[in-house]
Amino acid sequence: MPIDTLQRTAHEQLAEHIEHHITQRTWGRVRRLTIDCTPAGVTVRGQTTSYYVKQMAIQACLEVLREANPGCLEIILHAARNEAGSNVWKLWVINDARLSR
User: Which residues lie across from 79 on neighbouring strands?
Assistant: First the structure.
């Protein structure tokens, strides 16, 4: 089996695990939840009407990622309100081995 196939499978499994954990922690209150995993990092996007639910989703994502790769995370968060008044957010978690030193 090619290495690319193994890596893709691991990234897909991580994305599914993050999605499941976010859904569980937020009681399914995050709409348009998308998770993209690459070797460079993880991007999580979602939409919610509550700041609290957004914080719970971010915490759930970080819990999974800290288990998978402790000490190598750089986090960038972009949050905004859309026309309907919902909180729209995007979380970048960058896997950077330099951060673990």
Answer: 89
Q: Where are the domains of the chain?
A: 3-100
- In DSSP notation, 41-88 reads EEEEEEEES-HHHHHHHHHHHHHHHHHHSTT-EEEEEEEEE-TTS-EE
Q: Which fold has domain 3-100?
A: Gyrase A; domain 2 (3.30.1360)
Tokens of 62: 């970080």
Q: Which pTM value belongs to this model?
A: 0.72
Residues 6+ apart with CB under 8 A from 99: 71, 72, 73, 74
pLDDT digits 0-9 by tens, 55-83: 898 899 888 888 876 555 666 666 666 66
CA torsion, points 14, 18, 20, 24, in degrees to nearest 10?
A: 160
Contact 27, 70 (CB under 8 A): no
Classify residue 1 by its DSSP letter: -
